[in-house]
Amino acid sequence: MRPPYWIETLARNGEVLNRHQAGALPIRLGRGYDNDVILDDAHTAACHAVIEADADGRPVLRDLGSQNGSVHRGKRLASIALDGDTVVRLGHTNLRLRGADHPVPAEAADTTMHGWEGGTPALLGLGLVGATTVLSTWLSDAQPFQAVAYLLVLSYALAGGLVWGAVWAFGNRLFGRHARLGRHLFILGCGMVALQAWELLSSVVAYSYSLEWLTRYGRHALIAIVCGMVFFHLRTIKPRHPRRLAATCLALLLVGSSLALMSNLQQHGRLADEPYMSVLLPPAFRLSPDHSPDEFLKRAAALKAGVDADRAKAAAGGEADDNDEQAD
């Protein structure tokens, strides 16, 4: 490590906050104005530590008896040997020392998609949120048309979308340096379209082909879409680790689906969201083959036999309990 040296203060995620140049060793660190590097941290001492050369000429950080000490990898040490990647915590400040000969990685590919910044994706995302909300309200509305009701629903949806986008933009600004509000709103709008499309298409396909499992377990697909939205939000914040983000979202999907199944089992005694297909469409949508009345009556008789058997079993169990109570 050759001079000049650079003291880099780091954020919690490892990104460099600022750099201080020093021409030679020793380098004094602390809150006092007589230091070579002034630390704006109330948890550091006036003269907290000094970086000096050891007997072999390698840089070593030596604590000067500070109250909170100098910490490396969770251990408080009086002396810490430094290389270009050694991170030391002084108070609440993380820092490292690098020399002028420290190698840097090759230029990274630009994956920020600058075309999806600013007002265009923001307006498009809000437009998608508003359109899907109005469509959903119109499909479920059984009352006479009232413009005020649609305006209220639309205003609530846009306000909620702005809050959702602002939260992710704040995280983007905190961990990724740029807010990118427009892109987060566009991700939300696309997610709303995917949710609405799934609800409509799954209902039509389930009714047309008698695929009741699409409606009984359709909530898991909605959870998957939300996890996909979260993935793209996180990918906007940190585009360099897609596999880690995908694994995180997959874990969220498994947890969410498991909680949904356990909730159904606890509340209704079954894993499915609903016991039957709740969406009825015009007969023209039916594409599955019709069943004869004899087949229907046969299935009804089998169902009745099962219900009668369960009822008889429950009655027998009640009589046994009464006999036990009389015996006691």
Please explain how this structure is put together.
This protein has helices at residues 119-140, 147-176, 181-209, 213-216, 218-237, 242-268, 293-327, and strands at residues 5-10, 16-22, 27-30, 37-38, 49-53, 59-63, 70-72, 75-77, 79-81, 88-90, 93-99. The protein is α+β, with helices and mostly antiparallel strands. Strands 2-1-11-10-7-8 form a six-stranded antiparallel beta sheet, with no helix packed on it. Helix 2 (147-176) packs across helix 5. The mean pLDDT is 88.
Q: How would you describe this structure in keywords?
A:
7 helices; 328 residues; 11 strands; 6-stranded antiparallel β-sheet; 5-stranded mixed β-sheet
Rg on CA atoms, Å: 32 Å
Helix content: 40-55%
The overall pLDDT average reads 88
Q: How are the strands of the biggest sheet laid out side by side?
A: 2-1-11-10-7-8
Q: What ranges have pLDDT less than 50 throughout 5 or more consecutive residues?
A: none
As an assembly, this protein is single chain
Please identify the structural class as seen in this structure: alpha+beta
- What count of helical segments does DSSP give? 7
Q: What portion of residues belong to β-strands? A: 5-15%
Q: Please describe the biggest sheet, giving its number of strands, its sense, and whether it closes into a barrel.
A: 6 strands, antiparallel
User: From N to C, what is the helix and strand string?
Assistant: EEEEEEEEEEEHHHHHHH
**C-alpha end-to-end distance:** 89 Å
How many beta strands in the DSSP annotation? 11
Morphology: elongated
